[in-house]
Design goal:
22% helix, binds flavin mononucleotide, alpha/beta, Transcription Regulator spoIIAA, elongated, 3-stranded parallel sheet
């Protein structure tokens, strides 16, 4: 087989993967007010069932004032944990592993979508999304 290495198990630290395929983070715009939706679960489950080794969920907003808006998955509050747990357990049940890509857009956050001024570590104004 040409790509035999790709399907071999692999370990990243303590994370044992069933193969070396990784699905990178993609903001899918399918969350509702930051909550995981059935559409998102179905999307990731399709990939897990197809035997992807590792799925990177995200970007996941860590603060309302640094997020990409309500359609981005959020973990900025404990209220988001049950939905995220359901998603991760569904993926795990199919044998894939999960990593979270934490996301804070700083001055590039969408103030108009958030409904509040975005917050950043620097005072550099961004005209992109403000
Ligand atoms: C719709 C879409 C959303 C994406 N969102 C993210 C993201 O949230 N975080 C990130 O690091 N990369 C993001 N990416 C980049 C992908 O993770 C990946 O690196 C890229 O799509 C791979 O390159 P390719 O599309 O040329 O194959 C996104 C890509 C797409 C197409």
């Amino acid at each position: 087989m040409k790509f035999f290495k790709l399907l071999e198990p692999f370990k990243i630290g303590n994370l044992q993967l069933r193969n070396r395929t990784v699905m990178p983070a993609m903001h899918l715009g399918a969350a509702e007010n930051g909550y995981v939706t059935e559409q998102l679960i179905e999307f990731y489950l399709t990939r897990a069932t197809a035997r992807v080794g590792l799925i990177i969920i995200g970007g996941i907003g860590v603060s309302k004032r640094g997020t990409g808006g309500p359609t981005m998955v959020s973990l900025s509050d404990d209220k988001f944990i049950p939905g995220m747990r359901k998603l991760v357990e569904a993926i795990h049940n199919e044998g894939a592993k999960v990593i979270a890509q934490l996301y804070h857009a700083g001055g590039y956050a969408f103030s108009k979508l958030i409904g509040e001024q975005s917050i950043s570590s620097s005072a550099v104004y961004s005209r992109f999304y403000s």
